[in-house]
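Notes from the 1:1 (GR / supervisor)

We went over the backlog. Supervisor wanted to see one worked example end to end before approving the batch request, so GR pasted a single chain during the call. The sequence is below; no edits were made to it. Supervisor asked that the structure be written out right there so they could see what the output format looks like.
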Amino acid sequence: MTVASSASTTAESAPDTVENALLGGKVRLLQAPDGYRAGVDAALLAAAVPARPGQRVLEAGCGVGAVLMQIAARRPGAVLTGVERDPVAASLAVRNGALNAVADRVEAVAADIADGFAGLDRQRFDWAVSNPPFFDDEAALRAPAPAKRGAWIADDGLGSWIDFLVSGARDGGRIVVIHRADRLADLLALLGPRCGSFAIRPVQPHADQPAKRVLVHAVRSGRAPLRLLPALVLHDRSGAKHTPQAEAILRGEADLDWS
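Structure output shown during the call:
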């Protein structure tokens, strides 16, 4: 395990990266020109983490820091730690922290989720969040490009990701995961032995289509009844790119709360 060091390289002097704007320009993000690129899922996860000032947030599989940077922009008082097994991506996450002037409260740690939370040598967190890889088995989809494989394939299974998150959250701490809607039963089964107070928000492409994603909120040692919240609908038939609610969330002008 290593903590990636800061770097002052900018997009202009680093031909191995491209710079994109997130949250309506509030966040600048350096990403590799090839490979996995942050998108709507990262924005929705960040919007669903209403961390209060001083609270500590852990992200499993932070990549280049898209979720970290968006949470930092939304929650100026939060302190964030990202864990990423790809040292190149972890280094980019550090560079993005410097680019967005949040390096004083955002760190990226090069470590493997499969090694467990105990290896991080950190106190447990108020929040533990993730957008885990969507597939456990490469046979389940057309083989992803090598540069995208780590973002799509969970080599050690979804269970190792959930165990890391639950182990990293303090008692009463919150866990938030965005994943495929068809894995909801698996998520609840994996979280259930140590968590409760579930809140589930489906994410639908259109109002008349089934959800393709779910956001799942759980509390470690929570005991409140499960709640199924109104769905977030991403698109309508008006011709606009997103519904007004989705557009406000993606621009950082609205949150996804759990009330």
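Supervisor's comment: DSSP finds seven helices and twelve strands in the chain.
Batch request approved.
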